Amino acid sequence: MSAAVAAAAAAAASASSQRTSLGSPDNLMANSVGFNYCLPRHGAGFYLPMDPALLQPLPPPPPPPPPSSSRYESQKRRDWNTFGQYLRNHRPPLALHRCSGAHVLEFLRYLDQFGKTKVHNDACPFYGHPSPPVSCPCPLKQAWGSLDALVGRLRAAYEENGGRPDMNPFGVRAVRLYLRDVRDTQAKARGIAYEKKRRKRPQQPSSQPAVQQDHRYRHGHILMHDPEMDSGGDSGI
Asked: Is 9 within a domain?
């Protein structure tokens, strides 16, 4: 009996010394990199090896998608690239800061070969006819509306790409006169009137109250109010 008690005491002392050598739970957590700490319902907890793949750093999140550009911005970018290609193919090649209104007019006339709008000549029998019954050999050109919108986009793109507003070749008077001439010429040749839409100004409320019209307003005269006339009596005269 004493031998069994001595053996149990020795086993308890050995377990106690092993727990003491491991240290406190905080030290166990600090020294247990790569292990999972499991805590059963009864008894002391223990550590299990972790999967090494779980210790790898997480990859960085993907960058946010770029904001979708509007249709206007996409068209403006394409127009600017087309104009830049035209400057590079110019003989001799032309730098942007040396571009003038004359080069813009040359570029607009160059685009006429890609136009799809029939513009009748003066001698054409369909001159001024909005809907000719048959085809004619008159040339195809860029429509005035397309050129006007193109110049507006290139004027904005010029300043966005470092150009000075006071040196913008797309806003000079010669370009405006050219667009006006194209508009008038195409309007007569095609029999179409280009009317610029005017913005309606918001109606401002009048500061003076309007005169209320009632039975006292007759023939452009306002009758004086007489309380005795309203009551049906006479004036006592």
From this structure: no
Q: Where are the beta strands (DSSP E) in the chain?
A: 35-38, 46-49, 117-118, 140-141, 217-218, 221-222
By the 8 A CB rule, do 82 and 146 touch? no
Between vectors from CA 207 to CA 202 and to CA 211, what angle results, nearest 5°? 110
The first and second tokens of residue 151, run together, are 């110049």
Q: How many domains does the chain have?
A: 1
- How far lies 41's CA from each of 44, 45, 136, 181, in Å? 9, 9, 96, 93
Query: Residue written as tokens 């839409």?
Result: 197
User: pLDDT means per 10 residues in the chain (237 residues)?
Assistant: 58 54 46 51 54 65 69 94 93 89 95 93 90 90 95 95 92 96 92 67 57 48 46 44
Radius of gyration of the chain measured on its C-alpha atoms: 45
Contacts of 148 (CB under 8 A, 6+ apart): 179, 183
* Domain limits for position 140: 71-190
Q: Identify whether 107 is part of a domain.
A: yes
Rounded distance between C-alpha atoms, residue 107 and residue 101, angstroms: 10
Exposed, middle or buried by CB within 10 Å (0-12, 13-18, 19+), for 164? exposed
Residue 201 forms part of a structural domain: no
Does 30 map to a domain?
Answer: no
Q: Is the pTM of this model over 0.85?
A: no
